[in-house]
Amino acid sequence: MSNWYDKVDTRELYADKVVGCDECGESPLNIKGDGVVCGPILRLISVDYEKNLYRGSMLVVTKGEVPQPKVDIQLGPSMESSGSVSELNLKSGQLNATLIHSEMSYKFYRYAIEIELASVEQMCKYSVDGNTEAHYRFFIPSNTTNFNTISVSCNGFSLSVDTTKFKGSMWYDILRKHADVHYHVMLGGGDQIYSDSIKLYCNRFQDWLKTKDPIKKYSTKCSPELREELDKFYLKEYLEWFGYGYWKGSTEKSNTSQRCFPIAMSTIPSVNVFDDHDIIDGYGSYSHKFMSTDVFKNVGKSAYKYYMLFQHHTSVDEVEAYHKESCWVLGAQKGDYIEEKSHSVYTRLGPSMAVLGIDCRTERKLTQICSKETYDILFKKLADEVKHGKIDHLLLMLGVPIAYPRLVWLEYIFSSKFLFLFKWLSKKGIIAKGLVNEFNGDVELLDDLNDHWCAHYHKKERNYLLARLQDFAAQNKIRVTILSGDVHLASVGRFRSKVHTHHITSAKEDHDKKVLNEPENDVRLMVNVISSAVVNTPPPDQMAMLLQKRNKNHHFDRETDEDAVPIFMTDVNGENRSSNAFMNRRNWSDIIPVTNIINNKYLKNEYKVEIGEKLVPGTVGIKQEIDDSTDVSQVAYPVTENGIIATIHVEKDTSSPKSETVGYQIAIPELQTQISELSHAGIKHLDLK
To answer: Domain PhoD-like phosphatase: where (predicted)?
Structure first.
C-alpha cells in the first residue's frame, strides 16, 4: 500500500523496447510456449452517468491446455492529493471471465470490468495469475470529469516500406505522455492492423489472385480449405501484432517490432472502428462484380471475425455481446459482402462529452459507404442520447477524412477508358508492372481515391451526412469534432460559416466579424482532426505541396465554407513551412478538455493557456500571432471552460530512438448558440427541400 502512488518512469522503463524496432526475428509465436500469448488488452464499452457506472472489458488469449488466467484488481485514487496513504481504502476484487472463443490450441477469455465512478480520478491496478507489470494499470476519470482522449490510425506499415528508416516509435511517445497526462481512452480510427500480407502468406488465396482466366476467377467457390487458411492467417497476424508488435513485410527491409504498442493496449482502454487494411487494401471499393466473388467475400468475413474478437472482445456467435451490447449502433441491413450488420460504437466520454464511431466499412461498396436507413438509426441514437444529459462535444470517428482537398481529377484519369491499353500491358508485365492491382486490374491508387468521401460515387452521401450533422449540432447546441486518419499525414479540415470577400455590405461585414471573432457562436463550425499515421510511412514532400495547392476555399452550401486550417506555420525544427495546412510526418493526436489542462501541472506547463484567452492554431506552448489581417484562414479560437484542445503530436526525427514529437494545437470551443433550423440552400449534389 505504501507504494500505491508509484509513478511509472516510462522514459527509462521502455527505452529499450524501441531499440531494434526496424527489424524482427523469428515469430514470437514460434518461440513462446503455452500460457498467455496475447493481452491483456483493455476496451472501453460504456459509461453511464445516470447509474454512475464505468464498463469495460479485458481480453486475454492463451495457448495450450492451461487453466483460465486469474485477474485480480485493486482500485483507489490516482493522486496523492486525493487522500493520504494511511487513509487509503483500496478496493480489491477478481474479474469474472467468459470463454468467448476457442480455436486450434488458443482460447479467448473476456473479463468484465464494472467500476463505480467516484468523485476523484481512480487508478485500477491489476495482475494476471499473480504477475504484475508497471503498465498493468488504467485510469478512470471522476464522475464530473470528461475523458483525456487519444486518437490514432494507420497502425502498421505498407507491405514494401523500408522500415530501416524508422528508428523511433510513436507508441513510446504515447506511453511517455500517458504517465503525466493519464489518458482515459484510445480511439482507433481504422487500420489498427495491416493485413495486406495475406497476398503473400496465404497460398491458396495467392493462387486465386494469380488466376488468369477471369471466368474461372470470378466463379471460384471458397473451399473449406481456403477458408481455414484465411482464418489461420488472420489469427496468426493478430496474435503477432496485438501480442508482440511483430510484423514482417514483403522485403528484407520491411520488418518491425513495435513492442510499445501491446503495452499501450494494456494500460489505455480502446474504442475502435475498422478500415480497409484491417481486412485487405481497398476492401469495399472495388467493382461490385469483383467484391461479390465468393473468395473475396470470405476474405472480408474472416477478417471481420477476428476484428470483432481482438478489437471488440466479442465473438460473432454470441447473442448478447454481439447483438445487444449497449455500445453498439447496428446498421439497418447486412452489408453485401461481409454479410453482417455494421457495428458502429457509441459511448459517453464524460458527463458532457461523447463519441460515435461510424462503421464505414461493413456496408461499403463502390457506390455507398452507409445506407440512408443506417444514417437514420445513427441520428436517432444521438437524439435519444441527448435526452440523458447535455452533450457539449461529440467526437465523430470517420476512418477517412471528410474535409480534405479534392482529387477527383486523378480519379477521372485513373478510371479513364483511354488507359485500357496501358492497364492491359501492365497486367501482362510488359510495362509499368505496378500500375495495376492484382485484384481486378484497376490502377493501383484508384481504390484509395474511391475510398474518399469526395470521390465521384460518394459526394452526394458526404454532403447528406454533413448537412445532417450541422442540423443536429445546431438544434442541440453541440460542437461536433470529426476524427479521421487514413491519409498518412496530419491536417485539420474545417467547416464554418461563410466569410464574404467580395462586394461586402455593412451587414455582411458585421456577419464576417462575428464569424471570425466569435467562433463559439458559429453553429456551422466543425473541424476534422486528421491524424495519420502512428506507424506507417508518410508521403513525400511533393504530396504535401500538391495538397496545399489544392487547398482552396470550397462552398459546401451558400452559408458554409470549407478549407484546411494553417496550423503548421513552422516545421518541427522551428523553420517556416510553406505547406502550412499539411504535415507529412508520422503523428498521433489527443483531445483534452480545457479544465483538465488547467488542473494538470504537467499539461498547464506545456500549454501555458488560461481560460478566456484566444489561441491561433499552431505549436503548443508558443503564442502565435495572426501575421496577415486579410487572411481569413487564420482565426484565433477562444479557450473556454467547457472547450477542448485538440493536439497533433508530430515526429521530430525518424532516425532517433528517442521518438520525440512536437505538438500542434487548436482550441475548439463548445457551441454557445442554438438554432432550430439551418439553411442548406445551394448545397451540391442533392436536394434537401
So the answer is: 135-413, 421-602
DSSP state at residue 87: G
Q: What are the grid coordinates assigned to 438, written together?
A: 492484382
Distance of CA 627 to the CA centre of its chain: 33
Of the candidates 326, 183, 247, 238, the residue with the CA atom closest to the CA atom of residue 59: 238
Indicate if the alpha-carbon torsion angle 558, 357, 387, 392 is positive or negative.
negative
**pLDDT of 338-378, one tens digit each?**
999 999 999 999 999 999 999 999 999 999 999 999 999 99
Ordered by start, the domain boundaries in the chain are: 10-130+154-397, 452-668
% the chain with pLDDT above 90: 82
Spatial CB neighbours of 388, under 8 Å, sequence gap ≥ 6: 49, 50
The SS3 of residue 198 is helix
Distance of CA 634 to the CA centre of its chain: 27
pTM over 0.85, yes/no: yes
How far apart are the C-alpha atoms of 40 and 265, rounded to whole Å? 8
The Cβ of residue 512 has, within 10 Å, a number of other Cβ atoms equal to 17
Query: What is the C-alpha to C-alpha distance for residues 404 and 435, in angstroms, rounded to an integer?
Result: 25
Cβ-in-10-Å burial (0-12, 13-18, 19+) of 212 comes to exposed
| 588-632 confidence digits (pLDDT tens) | 999 999 999 999 999 999 999 999 999 999 999 998 887 666 678
Distance between CA 393 and CA 242 in Å, rounded?
Answer: 31
Task: Quickly count: other Cβ atoms within 10 Å of residue 648's Cβ.
Answer: 27
- Yes or no: say if 133 and 127 are a contact pair by the CB < 8 Å rule: no
- Local structure of residue 539 (DSSP, 8 states): P
Q: Is 359 exposed, middle or buried (0-12, 13-18, 19+ CB in 10 A)?
A: buried
Residue 536: phi, psi to the nearest 5? -65, 165
